[in-house]
Write a structure and sequence with these properties.
Elements: E1 2-11, E2 23-33, E3 38-42, H1 49-57, E4 64-69, E5 72-73, H2 79-85, E6 87-90, E7 97-101, H3 102-110, H4 117-126, H5 131-134, E8 138-139, H6 145-159, E9 163-167, H7 175-191, E10 196-200, H8 204-207, E11 212-217, E12 220-226, H9 227-230, E13 235-240, E14 249-254
Parallel strand pairs: 3-10, 3-11, 6-9, 9-10
Antiparallel strand pairs: 1-2, 1-4, 4-5, 7-8, 11-12, 13-14
Helix pairs in contact: 3-6, 4-6
Bound molecules: adenosine-5'-triphosphate (ATP) and magnesium ion (MG).
Length: 255
Amino acid sequence: MLELKNVSYTVKAGQDSYDDRDHDIIRDLSLTVEEGKLIVITGPNGGGKSTLSKLIMGIEQPTAGTITFDGVDITRMPIDERARLGIGYGFQQPARFTGMKVSKLIRLASGEKHMGAAACNKYLSAVGLCSANYLDRDVDKSLSGGELKRIEIATILARNPKLAIFDEPEAGIDLWSFDKLTATFEELHRTQPDHTILIISHQERIMQMADEIIVVKDGQVARRGTRDDIYPTLMFSKNQDPACGFTRAAESVTY
Ligand SMILES: Nc1ncnc2c1ncn2[C@@H]1O[C@H](COP(=O)(O)OP(=O)(O)OP(=O)(O)O)[C@@H](O)[C@H]1O
Ligand SMILES: [Mg+2]
């Protein structure tokens, strides 16, 4: 259903780059995702996972390569058209919408203008939030990071896209809500066999749900396989970091 062919994304010096050099963030990356799978993308910080999902959603444009969704070339397609085709994306750091109520955001996402409170409640409770406390709240800076993250996930559930991409859905979410969230992902996967879920995550519990794990590192697919093939190879070890003159011995995950 989703195919990336030789996709690259370079930030050019003098344009978006923070310094005077070009940065190759995604490098000649090819990837196919089958319909109905729950795929977890993991890998080291800065490896290119969020950039990859923004390229799929159309928030960034690739500098080379093609992206196809359900047989349609979406490489240059704007975000709203991709959303109409059935792609949904939850940001690693969601945006706040001052002046917008939670209830309205969920209604807009679902496409049902007159959605009742009970239906809104279904999506909020799926992420462990009680409607009574949130439906009339503004999606502004009064919400905590974890609350905002969960509300954004609820809007994606309400939209119910064919391909849902969640960028570190666990980030900032407490243990109780995390349990609820993983149960929600499992139920989505079980009850909608023609929907595809792509979750970017570093969490063991989320990786355990995956049909497949893809490791993205240095802007490329470093490894890919079933949960049983890949998970045991993601070892924790003490590593030297030769590239960094400041950190001599860093404890890190070996991808
Ligand atoms: N405008 C830019 N100029 C230069 N480098 C950039 C720019 N934007 C992003 N990068 C770099 O691209 C790399 C990939 O970033 P990305 O956010 O995709 O990583 P990630 O795998 O999602 O990391 P994390 O696990 O921390 O969320 C990072 O090293 C980042 O610093
Ligand atoms: Mg990221």
